[in-house]
């Protein structure tokens, strides 16, 4: 269930609302002063996540970085596999 933060215009308190519906309400009563004058805060984490995805798609350097990491990771696991294997007797 998504958690929606609301900032109070009167006292600045952050009220969090668990909302399972399609569209969360524009305002919820403030936890601290019970003022109805609140506004929904857009999630900071959601913004950063979408921004990172944009960068990953556009920057070719990122792909090369992933390739290198994948190759070295594969090499590492191969080494581990060989070390674990015992020769036939
Ligand atoms: Zn308040």
Strand composition percent: 15-25%
Query: Count of DSSP E strands?
Result: 3
User: What would you call the shape?
Assistant: elongated
Number of helices: 2
The radius of gyration is 25 Å
* Structural class by helix and strand composition: alpha+beta
Distance between the amino and carboxyl termini: 58 Å
**Which ligands does the model contain, each kind named once?**
zinc ion
Roughly what percent helix?
Answer: 40-55%
What oligomeric state is this? single chain
Count of discrete domains: 2
Helix and strand string, N-terminal first?
EEEHH
Strand numbers in spatial order across the main sheet: 2-1-3
Largest β sheet strand count, sense and barrel closure? 3 strands, antiparallel
Averaged pLDDT: 75
Task: Report low-confidence residues grouped into runs of 5 or more.
Answer: none
């Amino acid at each position: 269930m998504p958690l929606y933060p609301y900032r109070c215009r009167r006292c600045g308190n952050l009220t969090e609302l668990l909302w399972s519906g399609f569209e969360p309400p524009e305002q919820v009563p403030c936890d601290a002063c019970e003022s109805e004058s609140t506004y929904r805060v857009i999630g900071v984490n959601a913004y950063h996540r979408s921004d990172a995805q944009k960068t990953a798609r556009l920057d070719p350097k990122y792909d090369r970085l992933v390739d290198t990491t994948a190759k070295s990771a594969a090499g590492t696991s191969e080494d581990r596999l060989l070390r674990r294997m015992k020769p036939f007797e």
